[in-house]
Amino acid sequence: MARSMHIMVVDDEETICLALSAWLTKEGYSVETAASGQEALARMAEKKSDLYLVDFKMPGMDGLQLLAEIRARQPDAALIMITAHGSIGSAVEAMKRGAIDYLCKPFDPEELSLIMERVEAARAIQQAEAPVADHYAGTSQLSWGGIVGQSEALRVVLNEIEEVAPTNASVLITGETGTGKDLLALAIHMRSEHAHGPFVAINCGAQSETLLESELFGHEQGAFTGALKARRGRLEMANGGTLFLDEIGEISPKMQVNLLRVLEEKKFCRLGGNQPIDIDFRLVSATHRDLRQLLREEQFREDFFYRINVLTIHIPPLRERLEDVPVLADFFLQKYAQETGKPVEGLTPRAVEILMGYNWPGNVRELRNVIERVVVIARGRMIGAEELRFLKTYDDSCRSAPATLREAEILHLQGALEACDWNVTRAAKMLDIDRVTLTRKMKRFNLKRP
Questions:
Q1: What kind of fold does domain 120-314 have according to CATH?
Q2: Torsion over CA: 333, 335, 340, 346 (sign)
Q3: What does R_g of the chain's alpha carbons equal in angstroms?
Q4: DSSP at 317
Q5: Half-sphere exposure for 153 (CA within 13 Å, toward CB)
Q6: Average pLDDT of the residues of the chain
């Protein structure tokens, strides 16, 4: 799959350039290489890259000097420092000067994949922000990096982001599944003093306890069967930036104790290791569950709850801010029309009426999927009632707002399953969760095909 990002690899070791170039090219990126800082600047004068992977130790101009030159000539460029394990301290210094992350030799393809995911996510938000802001300029509608709407409820949320982002306090984002809690977390990061650092996200509900522990803390070589080499965890990757723990209500009491210790001491050890690693990051968490109810049920630790819940932002479900539906629908329609190349221009008044009359149990994520679907099946320039007839399949069952968050989740899951004819794989994709998580929730709520 071809990708739009152009990358330059700068390293005086030809084997490193060839290896990284081959891997990145295979992943669909456009790549060029340079053997020195001077050559990189010369190539940069001819064609700027979106991302620069720069070796720390090079003859002549070293990595830190090249980083400063690139930053001066191209302030919006993303930079990653390449370093040997013995030079990690220098790589951390590079991050303080604007590098978004560092990559250790020898390379771990999985770690490189995670870094590239973060770079692309941040770049997508930056690219989305300008055109969306221009599109809604001069109107009463709100926009920020993919968060769009016109309701007073959304205005309150964005004002809260402006207030909490500059602080270093832990933030807990609450709201139903599909409301856009991940976008709020990224918005907080990008408006904070950690904006130039990494934004590292992990879904705690999609991992087993053992896998989550390894993902967060990393491991040393030989820590367990299959640990053939040392690997950084998400805690270490988030150093100098923001760690986003999505669905934090799903983690076990044991993991809560481990994370609480990290948050208190600002240091941890990899699995199988005994060397403390100092870290400094901003914690943002999110959950669709009622953590206070979990406290009462003794499934969530009180000390951990108050540690992650210094500041709280609640995003209301879409059914409570229906005035955002037309703006969001237009935003997604323009997005998917451009991606598919279809000449779709807008929604008819009847189509908008249907969207406004729907209860949206899946919130913004469901609206996005609906608009993507109608753009794909559209035959004309306007989306009408005919393209939206499938919404009636589970609209009636979701008309009345649920009384509790548990009921809301059950309705949400049931609605998605019914819309997908109880195909668990398709429903999981619609809900943006993995199949195992959906199966576990179906078992918990006793959801079965009629």
A1: Rossmann fold (3.40.50)
A2: positive
A3: 23
A4: -
A5: 14
A6: 84
Of 306, 261, 267, nearest in space to 285 by CA: 306
Over residues 299-350, the pLDDT tens digits come to 999 999 999 999 999 999 999 999 999 999 998 998 888 888 888 989 999 9
Domain 120-314 and domain 319-444, same fold? Reply is no
The domain segmentation of the chain, as residue ranges, is 6-107, 120-314, 319-444
Query: Which letter does DSSP use for residue 268 in this model?
Result: E
**How many Å is the maximal CA-CA distance in the chain?**
71
- Cα(179)–Cα(162) distance, integer angstroms: 19
Beta-carbon neighbour count of residue 208 at 10 Å? 10
Tens digits of residue pLDDT in 116-162: 877 776 666 555 444 444 444 444 455 555 688 889 999 999 999 99
6-107: what CATH class?
alpha beta
pTM of the complete model: 0.67
Query: How many other CB atoms are found less than 10 A from the CB of residue 270?
Result: 23
| Secondary structure of residue 30 in the 3-state scheme | strand
CB 41 within 8 A of CB 69: yes
Question: Residue 32 CB: number of other CB atoms within 10 A?
Answer: 16
Planar angle of CA 105, 110, 282, nearest 5 degrees: 90
Closest listed residue to residue 200, CA positions, set 171, 164, 165, 241: 241
151, 315 contact by CB (below 8 A): no
pLDDT tens readout for residues 186-231: 889 988 888 877 888 898 987 888 889 988 998 888 878 777 778 8
**Joined tokens for residue 345:** 């221009």
Question: Which H, E and C letters describe 49-68, residue by residue?
Answer: CCEEEEECCCCCCCHHHHHH
CATH classification code of 319-444? 1.10.8.60
Mean pLDDT of 46-59: 90
